[in-house]
What does this fold into?
Amino acid sequence: MTDPTEQPEPTETKIKKPRSEKQLAILQEARKKALEVRKQNAELRKAEKEIEKAEKEKQLKERKEKVARYKKPQEEPQEEPPEVWEEPVKVKAKPKPKPKARKVVKKVIEVEESETDSSSEEEEEVVVVKKRVPKKKTQPAPAPQPKISAEDILRMRRQDNYNRLYNSMFKLG
It folds into this structure.
């Protein structure tokens, strides 16, 4: 066996025929013409790509406009007032109504007093309300009824006919 790196020896070698000056001139002109044709074809392909790109952009723009037209009647843009930043104002919390019997509410009251003059300053109360909400029990959805196809209907009719014939022959039913 031979090594895959070795190349087989050619049995026939091609010998180039010398070309005349006329043939060489014609060949040179054909090469120039082929080069020009390739350049023209490249320009055409480039122009076609630009046209396709412009068409795609146009279609995308039309689609966006269409979506915008359908969204405008549904969503009326409301002008939002400019945001105004104000410092938070401390407001005394109003007592909340008593919770319903089914909810468990824990109230934690923290009273902070300053060490200096606690009688002259107001006391701050922080009320943290924690609610424990029972998890809702979800019932599993009933299994969907299988759809009966036309083939199943025909099969069931045939089976019924067979059962009636069998029962009538042997007087089982």
Helices lie at 21-74, 150-170. Residues 162 and 168 are 10 Å apart (CA to CA). Residues 21-74 form the longest helix (54 residues). The chain has a mean pLDDT of 76.
